[in-house]
User: What shape does this take?
Amino acid sequence: MNQLEVYEAITRERIYQDKVWENKLKVGEHVALLNFYVQELNRAWTVNSGDFMAMEVIRKIAGICVRCMEQNDFPERKFDV
Assistant: This one.
């Protein structure tokens, strides 16, 4: 997959998440979700053969991270080019 396809997959995940979680979540609530899904990621990768199930969870984690950034202020990366 190229970067555009990855971002499109994350966007579709975000649309799904907005249907599941209608209310705004605080940073700590997103962190709790991330902790839960990191445990799920470990389980998915170790129990299933291949990477498919793990990548399903990684997509969820990416969506949660994006949702947290959308709903809460975050510092922009400063760098010299």
About this structure: The radius of gyration is 14 Å. The chain is about 75% helix and 0% strand. The mean pLDDT is 94.
